[in-house]
Amino acid sequence: EEHLVESGGGLVLPGGSLRLSCAVSGFSVSGYWMYWVRQAPGKGLTWVSRLDIDESITEYADSVKGRFTVSRDNAKNTLFLQMNSLRVEDTAVYYCAKGGIIHALDVWGQGTTVIVSS
Amino acid sequence: EIVLTQSPGTLSLSPGERATLSCRASQSVYSNHLAWYQQKPGQAPRLLIYGAFTRATGIPDRFSATGSGTDFSLTISRLEPEDFAVYYCHKHGVSPLFGGGTKVEIK
Questions:
Q1: Four-residue CA torsion sign, B97, B24, A103, A39
Q2: Is B1:A47 a contact under the CB 8 Å cutoff?
Q3: Inter-chain CB proximity B92 and A110 less than 8 Å
Q4: In which order are the strands placed within the sheet that holds B71-76?
Q5: Under an 8 A CB cutoff, do B45 and A101 touch?
Q6: How far apart are CA A17 and CA A67, in angstroms?
Q7: How many CB atoms lie within 10 A of CB B49?
Q8: Nearest C-alpha neighbor of B74 from the set B41, B40, B57, B99
Q9: Average pLDDT, chain B
Q10: Residue B32: which pLDDT band, with cuts at 50, 70 and 90?
């Protein structure tokens, strides 16, 4: 069975950094497009980043471009999101998700909470 | 840049009733790469529909979807108690995008 488990969230000061991890089981992280999606408190879903099968190909939402970096470790079967220069508006639950058939998000983790506050 | 607009924002219905949710794109969605997700409080979203009309694995057939180009809809034929939730449409693939969501609440 396919599973995703996020970790690494927490409370951080504005301007700080966090590294989120998404442990993958039941499939290979290198075999699918992988995504990070976030949800601010009481708000809807917002796409954050995409990592292609070709790991040199990445995409970011404009709101995080230049501050966030998505990567993976094939040996550990884990997806990462390095978040730098964090802002209050980055406060959200962060989900990792697998792009399945025609890249619809068919497997989701339970989410990890990031709070950016002074 | 494509924008996905979902309507209505909230739908108040009773169990057993039919729900119809709309998702309109500001530009044509490539190859109908349009998905629908259900999200309940405190839970991750669940994929219901992909490719505009194909039910994901394990999704009951009371959920159906149609549409192409810029206009898409999700129908729940007879609402079950577990169907009251927030529903999001999603342009999937490259440069993905979510709609703002429709809350289906108990009347």
A1: positive
A2: no
A3: no
A4: B4-7, B19-25, B71-76, B63-68
A5: no
A6: 9
A7: 26
A8: B99
A9: 96
A10: confident
